[in-house]
Amino acid sequence: MLQLLVAASLCGTLQSAYFSQFSMREPDQDPCVDSTGRPVRCVPEFINAAFGKPVVASDTCGLHGPERFCTVREGNDGVLRERCEECDAARQELSHPAQLLTDLNDANNMTCWVSSPSISPKNVSLTLSLGKKFELAYVSMHFCSRLPDSMAVYKSADFGRTWMPVHFFSSECKRIYGKLPNSDITKANEQDAICTDSHVTSPAGGNRVAFAFLENRPSALHFESSPVLQDWVTATDIKIVFNRISADQAELYGISNEVTDALSGSLGNDSQTDPVQQRYFYSMGELAVGGRCKCNGHASRCTYDKMGKYTCDCKHNTMGSECEQCKPFHYDRPWARATSRSANSCVACNCNLHAKRCRFDPELYRLSGQRSGGVCINCRHQTTGRNCHLCRPGYVRDSTKPITSRKACKSCGCHPVGSLGRSCNQTSGQCVCKTGVTGLTCNRCAKGYQQSRSTVTPCIRIPTLEDINAPEQDQCPKCRIVPKRLSQRKFCKRDHAIQIVVMGREMADGWAKYRIVVEQIFKKGLKGASSRRGETWLWVNEEAVLCKCPKIKVGRRYLLLGKDDESEDKPGIMVNPKTVLVEWSDELLEKVIRFGKRDKMGYCHPERY
Questions:
Q1: What residues does CATH 2.10.25.10 cover in the chain?
Q2: CA torsion, points 76, 77, 82, 88, in degrees to nearest 10?
Q3: Interatomic CA distance for residues 386 and 389, integer angstroms
Q4: Do residues 302 and 310 lie in contact, with contact meaning Cβ atoms separated by under 8 Å?
Q5: Can you name the CATH fold of 488-608?
Q6: Which residues pair with 124 in a beta bridge?
Q7: Do residues 458 and 452 lie in contact, with contact meaning Cβ atoms separated by under 8 Å?
Q8: Which fold would CATH assign to domain 412-469?
């Protein structure tokens, strides 16, 4: 049935398809977008991918000098008559090269490739190069003489470096190819080549033999979501290997395939002129391969680029000979093949006009709910952050200008003597002042302080009578719960790492009881409240509260790292000297994600610490 359909298709529409693949004209309406401008899946036109493409034969009649080949055909009177011809590759009118297989054939005067006559013509091959990846539907072969008894069809998806079988034809599948004829294909072996004998037992297509790549493949109806079948139909080259001549032809001349080797040996060097040998050869008139230029749903046509290479005219912000990758700067989500439901266009990174390069981070993409995974590279104009949306240390956001402005970040202007550094609060612009210093830029002494001559302590407290007479009091020890710098070592030595938001506070029996909500878990504890999201309690003893170690404010977000300590009478999370508490920021998120990746890679192995 397939051979009849292929034959009808070739007679009608194939000729126009031959030339459509070479059309360089841009279509009037871009099929890759709908009427509203929304990207949609698009595919190139279905064509004969073999037309005009080079075919290499391992053996050709007359290649090494003049030869004769003979055919037997039945006349109108029903009598079989033998007709002999000469072949000579040096004379164009007598040559029968493989290039004739992919030209524009005339059904009434078909040009044929002919192999060199031999008593036992085995393993003669034809190799077709398509020039780029195609997604194929069928392979069709029209023979000028009798059909070969056994032949194998192979395909390559890497331009001939590796080959895999796609179909076998033989009257003796088990003996020649070690396969049962017409075996069933299941989802477990959808890339297995089957062996059929229909071309011998019931040649409904006459001298035409064809097969479809997706015929009897269980996932064919769901091809769009089947990477296995998408790979199965992808090819850059097709190879046909003839392994045995037609059994019918051997019987016609009174000789069987089993004795051809013996005859070949007995004829010796004079076998070239033997009339029996002149009747044994392969001859094909047309090789057609139906399919589409492989563009993964991101192009409606293939064309020649500036280098003369046949390639997809990619849309949807994709690039490559098969539109198999995203264009530079379009890495906000991973590349994907287009489907009928979504074009899966590549999306540009959001860098607020401050960067020209970006990369894709799969972990950020997962944490964002598969919405955004682009990370900007080399942010300019004093910006930083994954979207170049923050200001670098020493700079603060200028609210009078849009974030896309080159002057969106202005200098903090922190006083070099009165401040502890160049950085300031990203929201208010407040610099971090030394003790006794105040002002937005730390440029004056606070109330109760006076200027000194020291650059270390520019403002000193004005002494009072009470200060002079008051005995020295114990001071709070240095607070280590709030570190100046969060390191990989601190992350590794803690059991859990969570993001919390403080909702309220109350005092109970010498303890500060903070009501918190665990929003994200970056490192999961083995037990307790740190191992699950939701509302819980954070306990801080009264001494730590008085020393403001840690200093916790209601409504703020924090990163909390700690040990899995529990108390029977205090459900929740206990703050102790091993706890680390850092106020939350976007820069902190990138650092914690990086620490988490290293933890999963074994960087936090106990031997390191």
A1: 412-469
A2: -20
A3: 7
A4: yes
A5: OB fold (Dihydrolipoamide Acetyltransferase, E2P) (2.40.50)
A6: 242
A7: yes
A8: Laminin (2.10.25)
Query: What tokens does 59 get?
Result: 């053996």
Single out the residue of 247, 248, 192 nearest to residue 182, CA to CA: 192
Which among 253, 257, 258 is positioned nearest to 278, based on CA atoms? Answer: 253
Give me the mean pLDDT over the 527-541 stretch: 84
Cα angle for residues 337, 343, 349 (degrees, 5° grid):
90
The DSSP letter of residue 162 is: S
Residues of the chain with CATH 2.40.50.120: 488-608
Q: Which CATH superfamily is domain 57-286 in?
A: Galactose-binding domain-like (2.60.120.260)
C-beta separation of 501 from 556 below 8 A: yes
Q: What is the CA radius of gyration of the chain?
A: 39
Q: What is the pLDDT, as a whole number, of residue 570?
A: 82
Burial, 443: exposed, middle or buried (Cβ in 10 Å; 0-12, 13-18, 19+)? middle
| Residue length of the chain | 609
Query: Whose CA is closest to 423, among 446, 442, 401?
Result: 442
Residue 13 banded pLDDT, cuts 50, 70, 90: very low
SS (H, E, C) 453-510: CCCCCCEEECCCHHHHHCCCCCCCCCCCCCCCCCCHHHHHCCCEEEEEEEEEEEEECC
How high is the pLDDT of residue 269?
40
Query: pLDDT per residue over 108-128, tens digit each?
Result: 667 889 998 886 677 899 999
Q: Are 140 and 5 in contact (CB under 8 A)?
A: no
CATH 2.60.120.260 intervals, the chain: 57-286
pLDDT band at 287 (very low <50, low <70, confident <90, very high): very high
Helices (H) and strands (E) in the chain, counts: 12, 34
